[in-house]
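Supplementary Methods, section 5.1.

A reviewer requested that the exact input to the structure prediction be made available. We therefore reproduce it here, unchanged from the version used in the analyses.
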Amino acid sequence: MPSPFLYFAGGRLSGAELAAARLDGDLVEVGEGYMPADAVETRELRAASLAPLVGQTLAATHLSAAWVHGVLDTPPARHAVQRVVARRLSPSLDARVRYSDVRLDAADADVIGGVAVTSPRRTLADLARSRDAAHRDVAVRMMTIAPHLRDEALAWLAAAGPVPDKRAAAAFLRAYAVPSARPPPGTAGQDEVTRYTS
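The structure derived from this sequence is encoded cell-by-cell as follows.
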C-alpha cells in the first residue's frame, strides 16, 4: 500500500501541481517523489520514494541503500539497483539508475516501506568492496555511526563465497579502528545509530 505521505507525478497530483506545492513550501522532494514539508523523513519514506525506480523486482543497493538507512543526507544522483527475482530482466534504460543483473539473495535484503533495500551489513560490505573512493568514504561514515556493522560485514564477506574484491574489502574493514563507545545520547548520529540494531 503506498504511503499517504508520498506524492508522485501523475498520481494524486500532476507534475505541475507538485512543482507548485514545492514552490509554495507545502512539499519537499524526497527521492523520486515529494512529501509534506512538515513530515519527518524516515527510512520508510526514503525507501518508498524509490518505488517508481525499484518496483517489486529490484532492490536499492550501495549509496542508495546507505541513503535509505540514514547514512547519507541526500540521495545519490544515480540510484544503484539490483534484481531480486530469479528471472533475468530487461529494464528500460534510465539515466537515474545504475542496474546490476546479478541476483541479490533474499537474505541480504530488507523490505522497507514496501521496497527491497540491502540490509545494513550487506550495504557496508558492498561499499567496502567498491573501488570508488566516495563509496569507501560512506563505508567509513557508516562504521562511525554504527561500529558493530564492521564485524557483521566481515562475517558476511567470510560466508559469501567468491565475490569480487572480497580480500580488499576485508582488509579495508579490518583497518578501520572501531570506536570504543557509541556517541552520547543527543549528539549527531544518535538517531542513525539506533536504526542499526539488526
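Residues 78 and 95 are 7 Å apart (CA to CA). These observations are discussed further in the main text.
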